[in-house]
C-alpha cells in the first residue's frame, strides 16, 4: 500500500499505516457529531461522547474476553498501560519476573522501581520450547515473586510466549500476570479469561488499526481493583471526594479521554474482526515467507529469526542498519533501523552490536510491495 506520492510503508510494528477508511470515518464522524467531553455533564453532546467511549469498552471487552466493559481502562498508549498496570499492584519488597526479549516499555519501569530499592527483578529466557520456557520461569520464582510482566510477542522477532500456560502457572503461584500485547493484539487471538491474564496492555494504534492517542488495559481479574493510581484528577464521578473513586475504570482514567481516538479504535477492532485475525496473520506470514526466502538467498544479508510473522529483522554485512534504512528511504521505502527500544531482545538474538533493520507488515500490503522492497534491498546489498 503506497501513499499518494508513492511511498511504501513497512513500519507497521511502530504504528500501522494506512488506517482503514472505516477508522478515518469514525474519527471524523466523532469530531463532527459527538464532540462533547465524555462524563463531564449530562447534555446531549457529553452523552454522545460517553456513548462512543462505552461502545469501545464493550467492543474491546468482548474482543479480548473480559467479562464486562468496565474491565477496560483507557490509557494513552501501551507504555502508559504497562506503567499503570505494574505500579498499581507492586508493593515494596516484591520480586518481579520479566522475559529476555522485553521492550524498554517493560524493562525501564521495572528497572526504575528496582533502582529505588523497592523491588528486585529477574529475567527468564523467552526463547526455546514451551517446556523450556516454563521450567526456566519456575526456576526463577521466589517466595516474594508477586508480578510477572512480559511481552506476548517481541517487536523484532515473531516468537510468541505460551501465555496460556504461563497464565496457569502464575495463577497457581499467586503471581499477577501483566502482558505486553503491543505486538500481538490484532495479530493473535487473546482471551484474558481463558489465558489467565490479569492485565493485558495494548495499543490502539498498531494491530488494532486505531489512530495514535489511546491504548488500554484489559483486565482479566480483580488484580488492579483497589490499586495505586498513577495520576489523580477529575473523573466525572464522586466529585465532592478528595480521593479517586474506587470503581473501575474511573479510578484510573483521570482527565479527559481522547474520544475521537477511542471512536476510531472501535472501528479498528471491527475492521480486525471483519478481516479475521487468522486471515490477517496468515497473510502477514505469507508475505514474511516470501521476503525471508528471497533474502536468505542473498549473500551478505543476515537474518535472525526463522519464525514467520509480522516482523523481519535483517542486516547487510558492511553497511550499518541506519545506512540501509536511509538508502531505502531515498528509494521511497520506510523501514525502521537501530535498536527498536529493545536492547534485551537484540542481546538475545545476537544483534546487539549494531541493532538491525526491521521490516513490518500490515493488512494492506501486497506481494508486489514485498517484491519492490526485496529488489531495493538487493540493489543495496550488491553495491
Ligand atoms: N512493547 C512493545 C513490544 C512494543 O513493540 C512497543 C512499541 N514499540 C511498546 C511496548 C510501546 O508501545 P506504545 O508506543 O504504544 O507505547
Please characterize this protein's 3D structure:
The protein has 383 residues and is an alpha/beta fold. It folds into 2 domains: 8-19 and 276-382, Aspartate Aminotransferase, domain 1 (Alpha-Beta Complex), CATH 3.90.1150; 21-274, Aspartate Aminotransferase, domain 2. The chain has 11 helices and 13 strands. It has helices spanning 21-33, 44-63, 78-89, 104-115, 130-140, 163-173, 259-275, 277-296, 321-330, 343-349, 367-381, and strands spanning 8-9, 72-75, 95-99, 120-124, 145-151, 176-180, 199-203, 215-219, 301-303, 311-316, 333-334, 336-338, 356-360. It has a 7-stranded mixed sheet with strand order 2-8-7-6-5-3-4, with helices on both faces. A 4-stranded antiparallel sheet has the order 9-10-13-12, with helices on one face. A hairpin with a 7-residue loop joins strand 9 (301-303) and strand 10. Helix 1 (21-33) packs antiparallel against helix 7 and helix 2 runs parallel beside helix 7 (259-275). The longest helix has 20 residues, at 44-63. The chain is globular and about 70 Å long. Residues 13-14, 77-79, 103, 105, 151, 154-155, 180, 182-183, 203, 215, 341 line the site of 4'-deoxy-4'-aminopyridoxal-5'-phosphate (PMP).
Amino acid at each position: 500500500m503506497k501513499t499518494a506520492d508513492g511511498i511504501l510503508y513497512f513500519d507497521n510494528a511502530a504504528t500501522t499505516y494506512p488506517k482503514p477508511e472505516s477508522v478515518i470515518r469514525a474519527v471524523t464522524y466523532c469530531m463532527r457529531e459527538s464532540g462533547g467531553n465524555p462524563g463531564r455533564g449530562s447534555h446531549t453532546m457529553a452523552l454522545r461522547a460517553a456513548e462512543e467511549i462505552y461502545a469501545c469498552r464493550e467492543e474491546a471487552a468482548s474482543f479480548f474476553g473480559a467479562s464486562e466493559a468496565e474491565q477496560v481502562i483507557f490509557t494513552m498508549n501501551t507504555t502508559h498501560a504497562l506503567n499503570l498496570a505494574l505500579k498499581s499492584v507492586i508493593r515494596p519488597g516484591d520480586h518481579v519476573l520479566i522475559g529476555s526479549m522485553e521492550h524498554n516499555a517493560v524493562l525501564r519501569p521495572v528497572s526504575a522501581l528496582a533502582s529505588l530499592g523497592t523491588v528486585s527483578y529477574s529475567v527468564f529466557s523467552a526463547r526455546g520450547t514451551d517446556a523450556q520456557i516454563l521450567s526456566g520461569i519456575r526456576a526463577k520464582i521466589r517466595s516474594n515473586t508477586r508480578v510477572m510482566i512480559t511481552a506476548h510477542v517481541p517487536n523484532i522477532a515473531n516468537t510468541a510466549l505460551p501465555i496460556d500456560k504461563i497464565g496457569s502457572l502464575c495463577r497457581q503461584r499467586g503471581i499477577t500476570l501483566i502482558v505486553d500485547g503491543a505486538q500481538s493484539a490484532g495479530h493473535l487471538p487473546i482471551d484474558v479469561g481463558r489465558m489467565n491474564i490479569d492485565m493485558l496492555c495494548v495499543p490502539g494504534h498498531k494491530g488494532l488499526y486505531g489512530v495514535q492517542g489511546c491504548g488500554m488495559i484489559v483486565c482479566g481479574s480483580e488484580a488492579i481493583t483497589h490499586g495505586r493510581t498513577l495520576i489523580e484528577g477529575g473523573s466525572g464521578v464522586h466529585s465532592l471526594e478528595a480521593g479517586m473513586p474506587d470503581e473501575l475504570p474511573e479510578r484510573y482514567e483521570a482527565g479527559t479521554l481522547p474520544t475521537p481516538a477511542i471512536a476510531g479504535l472501535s472501528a479498528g477492532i471491527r475492521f480486525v474482526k471483519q478481516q479475521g485475525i487468522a486471515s490477517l496473520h496468515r497473510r502477514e506470514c505469507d508475505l514474511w515467507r516470501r521476503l525471508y526466502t528471497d533474502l536468505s538467498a542473498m549473500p551478505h544479508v543476515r537474518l535472525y529469526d526463522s519464525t514467520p510473522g509480522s516482523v523481519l529483522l535483517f542486516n547487510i554485512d558492511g553497511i550499518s542498519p541506519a545506512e540501509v534504512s536511509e538508502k531505502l528511504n531515498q528509494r521511497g521505502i520506510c523501514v525502521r533501523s537501530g535498536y527498536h527500544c529493545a536492547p534485551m531482545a537484540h542481546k538475545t538474538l545476537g544483534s546487539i552490536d549494531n541493532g538491525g533493520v526491521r521490516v513490518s507488515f500490515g493488512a494492506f500490503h501486497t506481494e508486489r510491495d514485498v517484491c519492490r522492497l526485496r529488489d531495493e534491498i538487493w540493489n543495496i546489498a550488491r553495491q
